[in-house]
């Protein structure tokens, strides 16, 4: 069993600081190849995509925090990122690739810490690695 506190997102090999939660999603389209004569639906695999999303505490002074991604979003540049364990051991799985930053949403509610939500979408193939 893995604990949520042990999973994180790294950008260019450095943990994005202040993480409170993170998720990784891998999806694939399906293509309907049924004909009028088919008694049931028949499917083929289409393209796949991945998304990463996370929640972070906001720290305007931390160069490793969520603001390490705002230049990529504003300038339209891609980032290299991974979803993985903090300390990898033999058999641990990680996912990495090229990503575009699609969302940085800042929230500052009364009587609570300021937070940021970020979303990344895959750009090209995702590499699945099993630690040796």
Features of this protein?
eight-stranded antiparallel beta sheet; 1 helix; mainly beta; Pnp Oxidase, Chain A; about 55% strand; 8 strands; about 130 residues
Which helices and strands, and how do they pair?
Blueprint: E1 7-11, E2 14-15, E3 19-32, E4 43-57, H1 70-75, E5 79-85, E6 93-107, E7 115-122, E8 127-130
Antiparallel strand pairs: 1-2, 1-5, 3-4, 4-7, 5-6, 6-7, 6-8
Oligomer category: single chain
What is the general shape? Answer: globular
Please provide the ordered H/E string of secondary-structure elements: EEEEHEEEE
Q: In total, how many domains does the architecture comprise?
A: 1
CATH homologous superfamily heading: Hcp1-like
What's the β-strand tally?
Answer: 8
Mean pLDDT: 90
Strand content: over 45%
Please state the second-level CATH architecture: Roll
Report on the architecture of this protein.
This protein is mainly beta and 132 residues long. The protein has one domain: Roll (Pnp Oxidase, Chain A). The protein is built from one helix and eight strands, in the order ββββαββββ. The protein has one helix at 70-75, and strands at residues 7-11, 14-15, 19-32, 43-57, 79-85, 93-107, 115-122, 127-130. Strands 1, 2, 3, 4, 5, 6, 7 and 8 form an eight-stranded antiparallel sheet that branches. The radius of gyration is 18 Å and the shape is globular. The chain starts with 6 loop residues before the first strand and ends with a strand. The relative contact order is 0.24.
Please provide a brief summary of the model.
By secondary structure, this protein is mainly beta. The protein has one helix at 70-75; strands spanning 7-11, 14-15, 19-32, 43-57, 79-85, 93-107, 115-122, 127-130. The longest helix is centred in the middle third of the chain and has 6 residues, at 70-75.
């Amino acid at each position: 069993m893995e604990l949520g506190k042990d999973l994180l997102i790294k950008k260019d090999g450095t943990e994005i600081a202040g993480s409170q939660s993170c998720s990784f999603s891998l999806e694939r389209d399906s293509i309907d190849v049924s004909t009028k004569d088919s008694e049931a639906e028949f499917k083929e695999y289409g393209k796949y995509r991945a998304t990463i999303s996370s929640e972070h505490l906001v720290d305007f002074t931390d160069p490793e925090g969520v603001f390490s991604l705002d230049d990529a979003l504003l300038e339209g540049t891609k980032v290299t990122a991974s979803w993985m364990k903090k300390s990898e051991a033999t058999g641990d799985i990680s996912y990495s690739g090229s990503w575009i930053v699609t969302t940085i949403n800042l929230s500052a509610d009364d009587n609570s810490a300021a937070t940021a939500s970020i979303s990344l979408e895959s750009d090209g193939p995702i590499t699945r690695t099993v630690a040796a």
